[in-house]
Write a structure and sequence with these properties.
The protein is α/β, with parallel strands linked by helices. The mean pLDDT is about 95. The longest helix has about 30 residues. It contains 15 helices and 13 strands. The protein is globular. The strands form four sheets. Strands 2-10-9-8-7-3-4 form a seven-stranded mixed sheet, with helices on both faces. It has a two-stranded parallel sheet with strand order 1-12. It binds (2S)-2-hydroxybutanedioic acid. (2S)-2-hydroxybutanedioic acid binds next to loops.
Length: about 400
Amino acid sequence: MWKNIQPAPPDSILGLTEQFKKDRNPQKVNLGVGVYKDNSGNTPILGAVKKAEQMLLAGETTKSYLPISGDPAYDKAVQKLVLGEECETFQSSRAVTVHAPGGTGALKVGAALLKKFKPQARVWVSSPTWANHNGIFSDAGFELDRYSYYNPETKGLEFDRMLATLGRIPAGDIVVLHTCCHNPSGVDLNPGQWDEVVGLAKQQGWIPFLDFAYQGFGEGVVEDRYAVEQFGAAGIDFLVASSFSKNFGLYNERTGALTVICPSGDEAAVAMSHVKTVIRTNYSNPPAHGGLVATIILNDPQLYQQWLAELADMRDRIKDMRRALVQGLAESGVEGDFSFIEQQRGMFSFSGLSDDVVKWLRAEKGIYMVGGGRINLAGLTTDNIDYVCRSIAEAVKSVG
Ligand code: LMR
């Protein structure tokens, strides 16, 4: 069956990790995949997660199936965090949430749901966007289009051009927006800009699909959900794919959620019935462990505070590394103004390094970045940053 079939190319992000693992360079550094690392280069299990796991093990009585939509306590806890407890959207029955296997799983379920009821819609993604958005939505059968977002010249947001595109997207089309910590650029909208985008969504009638994979990595869990709150207040249809991979470090437990928000509770109930059908025919019901752990933490005041503190530590360390990188590049004699790296938010920075530099660094120095020059700042440590900065200086001189 496979004799005449060409192999698929490796994944542009996860494929890099496979390559990195095989690299024998003792100084190798992985700045590719969006996984948090501490200053020792490890991806730790959070203390709050360890405690919750102990509580879970002690009290767990069954491994029976979860409901199709996941544990109701999990779904409620997700809504509280993602929508905000004070919000009418949370207090009403206009929002329905299901546990999905990670943020990718949530996007996939959402895409399949939308394809059923908006088969002719186009999906608009930011230029650039997370590579897997393209795969997920085109696999679901959608045609993709792009709206302006990042300007490589200014290293900032092209807000006017973004608005111009969003202002001509027709009703019923789907617009994928990064709620915070834009992947791959690290460039976000400010609250005033979000208000304008929400206004356009309402005016035009397109359907926002918010990718919310980095809550807490920008400014904090409350600040980072500003866009969700404003879309909620607008009373329109929208969807949110959220994930606990990064902010709880539950990467391999595939702990995410899809929340569908509707103008009324009756519509939300209809939406939920169809989301359940999509899940049932795909993977039947979600894995339990990560969701149970997150629910314990989100409902236990002490563990919740511990988690917030651990999340703040991760956020602050990344900000420290942003500063250290800007300083290190200047000290290593790399020409140019890299101060934009400090303005960007979340795990990633679009470094502005060319694809030739990226390839050279991988081949010659064992330093892995995603094509387009995306750097995961969390891969930098006080031990490897000098090596990285000196290597970038050498790369820019050789091929930049
Ligand atoms: C990333 O962008 O590196 C992460 O979101 C991990 C992934 O699945 O691509």
